[in-house]
């Protein structure tokens, strides 16, 4: 859609022998240097992993059943956590962005708490609420016989706890940035608030929701501290890739590198695919 | 409810719109009473920040009132929530939903009102066809021209079968070259609507062409109301006078003589008018009625003042000369006359206006 | 950049380990001729197993009190984690591990030649022992009496992951007892096991005697005879990369001294 502009630009650049074009100037070094340093800082650790990876034994290591189980668990729980976050987080973002009620500011601050506290503490907090002896957990246990810790559901909950704020903040920003007059227009056409939300607001902030969901998914996929604290660590049940990486680190750093690379490549592949489809703006 | 209501309506119908709107926000206060008959098009004309849009928003229920009422077809809608008011609104920039086709934009309202998808689309298609937009029914709003978008917005507003149609600066988003066509077309479409229409504009030309009646809003109050011709001929405030391009003065009449002032820049000046009046009056005359002379003219005009040139600007194919002195006024002369007079900033000149050209009306 | 001899130790360490991860750490250090681990300004970096938290914190106060200007920077974590950090060039002067195997990793990682500069010899000294105990919540919901009960149905158990020292000890104990316990979770360190017991999330966990002592009345400790088969020895040593061998040796001596022994005993440690 925007191909016209840059394309035309490229054409003039190609024509070297034509009359001189206006020089747009080189990018200022005050931006380029820090940018390159920043990129290097992000890329080099990854390069370190690649260099140290035991490529010769990669194939067999990757296909070990434990690795595949952890990978599958990671992907499925992160996806489930993202879905839960969407279900709960988008309405929460709406509440924060579109309504005014006493304590809204406080609630907004509370939403960002999981971003600030160490995930391990978050895991303990989850245990205190949803654990077997937790505030709510004890009733789940005595009334329904449900115990959450040490189950895949606990993994999802831990991930939702740390990852949902990314979604909420991203969607709230999108909602605040959206032109509210469209919502008013919909209201004058007879749309109820719920209809306005689903038919007008949601489509308008869809890019924001997409970006938030991607962030949320990525954060959930990498989640470690809250997961190991709240859900525990048992292969096949609650041991996600980051936990497997951590455990491998204790025993065999090379195995940890292999696992890290698998996690990285799979998540990059998924994000690249999603980016193509959703964040293509 | 539209057809039923019409059938049961007694012969003496209540006004389509009867509203008294009071609201205050920060330092701004609005206090406006409006009435419009069935099929009447009322234009709210005023400078930016005068509160015109607030009036529309209050009528639509988008801005809460601190007092007053809104009655549409005699029914009190003061506390009706936006989504249930019998209104249709065309917003500035039209605000078409970008993620829907033109057809779905128009069908949106009927869907919200409970029509089936098929019925809503049929109604939308009918409206678009009526507006000459059948070929663009599937188009995304961003691919429509300004005039087409305006008609889609109008169709969308009319699709909900409103009893009151509200238009906020319907011409503002259009470029000058297309305005004449679009304005004429909009006027024809608005004339077909049988409820009351309130439109807001800051452009006097739009107001003159589109409206049956103009209400001039300044600083949250209606300062003048009347048919376009009346407003154009007899402005009541300097703002309106400037809009319609007239020289306007306030004064006290004794017979055919009006003594200007005491306020303003016309202190002590006299104006001779055609008819006899008494008491507070306004006098107005167009700049083209002013003749300029290098020396005191003999005979003809009854009003002659010696003034100083304050500024000269191009005005269409004429030149507008701003004059100051005993009173401040604008005069339009041809470029040739300007050259002949050798006028420039600070030149002294005699300005004359025939008494018959001066409009005088109670102030 | 000119390299000055006395400050080169950490870089040598990096060169020896040559870990990819270390590359970044060394790069960061190499930026200036600045001070890596305690550079004679009285700062002593002690890396110690998490189970030593209370003991070493108390000893650090003592140490600093006797030596004005000295500052002990304590870094507590799982022993293996610390070993990995040290092998990757983390600035450390002293390392106290929760088992000898982990200490060996560091010795290997560093190259045997570099050896240990502790006290007189070239090896790490064992300064404490720790034995496993079963920890249960005060109300003992699982009715756990002995080691065999851990394998019972409906008893939820938290164990250390095999990869960490307490997990290795657990495995030894299980072998000795001839009981295979399948836990609900393999925790990453012994403190995490203790937390799960304290919160009542599990009916029992295998932790060290020291952990039971530190938890006070929040957990109950149950001794079991098989624990004697899995006594954990805590070695301590000065790292070759230290910038202040004197201060580091002082610290090791304090840990090995009567004072150290007393504080260790209070925390539930045995002494060799």
TrEMBL record, chain A:
SUPFAM superfamilies: MetI-like. Gene3D superfamilies: MetI-like. The chain crosses the membrane at residues 28-51, 71-97, 109-130, 150-175, 196-220, 255-274. It is a multi-pass membrane protein. The keyword RNA-binding does not apply. It is found in: Cell membrane. Residues 8-20 have a biased composition (Basic and acidic residues). Keywords: Cell membrane, Membrane, Molybdenum, Transmembrane, Transmembrane helix, Transport. It comes from the Bacteria. Its main location: membrane. Belongs to the binding-protein-dependent transport system permease family. CysTW subfamily. Part of the binding-protein-dependent transport system for molybdenum; probably responsible for the translocation of the substrate across the membrane. This is Molybdenum transport system permease.
From TrEMBL, chain B:
The keyword Membrane applies. Pfam families: ABC_tran, TOBE. PROSITE patterns: ABC_TRANSPORTER_1, ABC_TRANSPORTER_2, MOP. Residues 12-244 form the ABC transporter domain. Residues 298-362 form the Mop domain. Keywords: ATP-binding, Cell membrane, Ion transport, Iron, Iron transport, Membrane, Molybdenum, Nucleotide-binding, Transport. GO terms for molecular function: ATP binding. This is ABC transporter ATP-binding protein. It comes from Streptomonospora nanhaiensis.
Automatic annotation (TrEMBL), chain C:
The keyword Signal applies. Transmembrane segments: none annotated. InterPro entries: ModA (IPR005950), ModA/WtpA (IPR050682). Keywords: Metal-binding, Signal. It comes from the Bacteria. Residues 1-30 form the signal peptide. Belongs to the bacterial solute-binding protein ModA family. This is Molybdate ABC transporter substrate-binding protein. The lineage of its organism: Bacteria, Bacillati, Actinomycetota, Actinomycetes, Streptosporangiales.
